[in-house]
C-alpha cells in the first residue's frame, strides 16, 4: 500500500538526527513485552543488553524506509516527507536514528486495517478507526467528507463535511408533501467501508451547523462482492439544525456507502451502526 511519512525536525537546527530509518512489525502482546523498558536520562546511551534484546526482536522486521538523510529544523526545511510502499499492515514501527540527535514529530499516514469483529458485535462501520475511507465526492468547499468519520463529536464547523451553497438553488423554496424542499441539485460523497457489513441504524449529526445544515439526506449502499449496484438504504429524510439524528434501517451486506445531501450544506458526523458480514 502507498503511504506517506513525515519526519518533522522542528527546532532541531543544530542537533537534528542526520539520518533515520524505519522498520515495520506485527507483534503480539508477548513479543511486545520483550521490548526493553528504558527511562529518559540525559546523556545516556542504550545499554548493550538493551540493544541486543531489541536487535534480536527486530532483526527480521521489514525495512520501510532505508537509511535516509534528514534536513535541519528550520521553517523551510523541517518537513521531511517521504512516500513509502510499506507492505503491512503493521502493529508496530521501529525508528532508528544515526548516530544520534533530535526529531520533533513523526507522522505515519495510512488506513487502519483492524481484524473484523465477530458477526454479532455491533459496531460503527463508518469510522476511520475501522478502516473506512472517503473515495470520492462532488464538493468539499468548506470541509472534507472524511471528517464525518472521525471519533467523537465535531469540534466546530471546520470539523465536518460542508459543501459550497449550490448556485442553482431555486429562488423561491417549495416543500414537497414529506416536508423536504424541491431542489434542482444535490451533493454526494462515497465511502469504502473497512469491513463489509449490514447496517441497522444510521446516525447523522448536524452539530454546529445552524443556518447551513442540509435540508435532507439520503443513504445508499453497494456490495462490490455482490451485484455491484446502488440500493437505497435510507430514503430522503429531513434534517434539523445542530442536532444528532438517528434513523433505523435494515440493509443487506454493503462494502460502499453513498451519502447524498440536498441541496447542500454541512454534516458533522456520520455513524453507520451494524455488524460485519464475512466475505
Ligand atoms: C509523493 O507522491 C506524490 C504523488 O505521486 C507526489 O506528488 C509527491 O511529490 C511525492 N512526494 C515526495 C516527498 O516524494
Structure description:
With about 280 residues, this protein is mainly beta. It has 2 domains: about 110 residues, Jelly Rolls (Sandwich), CATH 2.60.120; about 160 residues, Jelly Rolls. The strands form 4 sheets. Strands 7, 8, 10, 11, 12, 13, 14 and 16 form an 8-stranded antiparallel β-sheet that branches. Strands 4-1-6 form a 3-stranded antiparallel β-sheet, with no helix packed on it.
Task: Name a few traits of the molecule.
Jelly Rolls; 16 strands; eight-stranded antiparallel beta sheet; mainly beta; three-stranded antiparallel beta sheet; 2 helices; 5% helix; 279 residues; binds 2-acetamido-2-deoxy-beta-D-glucopyranose
Largest sheet: 8 strands, antiparallel
Number of domains: 2
Overall average pLDDT = 94
Q: For this structure, what is the CATH homologous superfamily of the largest domain?
A: Galactose-binding domain-like
Q: What name is given to the CATH topology of the largest domain?
A: Jelly Rolls
| Shape annotation | elongated
What is the CATH class designation of the largest domain? Mainly Beta
Strand content: 35-45%
Q: Which compounds are bound in this model?
A: 2-acetamido-2-deoxy-beta-D-glucopyranose
- Contiguous helical run count: 2
Label the CATH architecture of the largest domain: Sandwich
Beta-strand segment tally: 16
Radius of gyration: 24 Å
Secondary structure category: mainly beta
Amino acid at each position: 500500500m502507498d503511504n506517506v511519512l513525515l519526519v518533522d525536525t522542528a527546532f532541531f537546527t543544530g542537533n537534528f538526527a542526520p539520518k533515520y530509518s524505519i522498520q515495520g512489525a506485527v507483534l503480539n502482546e508477548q513479543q511486545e513485552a520483550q521490548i526493553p523498558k528504558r527511562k529518559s536520562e540525559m546523556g545516556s546511551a542504550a545499554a548493550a543488553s538493551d540493544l541486543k534484546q531489541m536487535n534480536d526482536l527486530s532483526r527480521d522486521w521489514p525495512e520501510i524506509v532505508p537509511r535516509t538523510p534528514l534536513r535541519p529544523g528550520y521553517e523551510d526545511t523541517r518537513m521531511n516527507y517521504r512516500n513509502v510502499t510499506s507492505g503491512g499492515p503493521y502493529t508496530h514501527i521501529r525508528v532508528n536514528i544515526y548516530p544520534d540527535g533530535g526529531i520533533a514529530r513523526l507522522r505515519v499516514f495510512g488506513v487502519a486495517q483492524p481484524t473484523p469483529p465477530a458477526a454479532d458485535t455491533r459496531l460503527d462501520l463508518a469510522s476511520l478507526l475501522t478502516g473506512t475511507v472517503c473515495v470520492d465526492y462532488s464538493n468539499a468547499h468548506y470541509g472534507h467528507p472524511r471528517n464525518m468519520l472521525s471519533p467523537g463529536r465535531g469540534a466546530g464547523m471546520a470539523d465536518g463535511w460542508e459543501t459550497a451553497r449550490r448556485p442553482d438553488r431555486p429562488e423561491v423554496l417549495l416543500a414537497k408533501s414529506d416536508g423536504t424542499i424541491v431542489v434542482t441539485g444535490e451533493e454526494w460523497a462515497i465511502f469504502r467501508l473497512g469491513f463489509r457489513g449490514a447496517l441497522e441504524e444510521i446516525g447523522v449529526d448536524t452539530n454546529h451547523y445552524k443556518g447551513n445544515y442540509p435540508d435532507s439526506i439520503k443513504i445508499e449502499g453497494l456490495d462490490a462482492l455482490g451485484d455491484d449496484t446502488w440500493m437505497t438504504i435510507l430514503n430522503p429524510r429531513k434534517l434539523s439544525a445542530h442536532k444528532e439524528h438517528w434513523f433505523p434501517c435494515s440493509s443487506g451486506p454493503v462494502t460502499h456507502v453513498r451519502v447524498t445531501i440536498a441541496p447542500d450544506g454541512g454534516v458533522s458526523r456520520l455513524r453507520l451502526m451494524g455488524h460485519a458480514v464475512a466475505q
